[in-house]
Amino acid sequence: MDKQRVLELLARSKPELGVRFGVTRLALFGSTARGTARPDSDVDVLVAFAGPATAERFFGVQFYLEDLLGCNVDLVTEKALLPRFRPFIEQDQVYV
Predict the structure, then answer these.
(1) Which domain holds residue 40?
(2) Has 42 been annotated as catalytic?
(3) What is the CATH number for 29?
(4) Which residues pair with 26 in a beta bridge?
(5) Domain tally for the chain?
(6) Per-residue pLDDT tens digits for 10-42
(7) Among 42, 67, 74, 92, which one carries the catalytic annotation?
(8) Which of the residues 44, 67, 74, 92 is marked catalytic?
(9) Which of 73, 82, 89, 95 has the fewest CB atoms within 10 Å, i.e. the most exposed one?
């Protein structure tokens, strides 16, 4: 799936993700954001929650996005992002 299509689907779903799971921010990063994804690539998404990122919220968002996009989603919370990876993600990220 191409970058623009993923961004469109994420933007359309963001209000529901906020209501159902407390999502406050979403950003696309990785190969899809760079436009270098292959057909078998997963989609990398950075997420922030209002309140704690409980397992129910985290996996709820991951499964929702996998159903929406029809592929594997690598979901990363902003709080869990390791400092050594932050610069690489920040250079690619596209906020929704």
Answers:
(1) 3-95
(2) yes
(3) 3.30.460.10
(4) 47
(5) 1
(6) 999 999 999 999 999 999 999 999 999 999 999
(7) 42
(8) 44
(9) 82
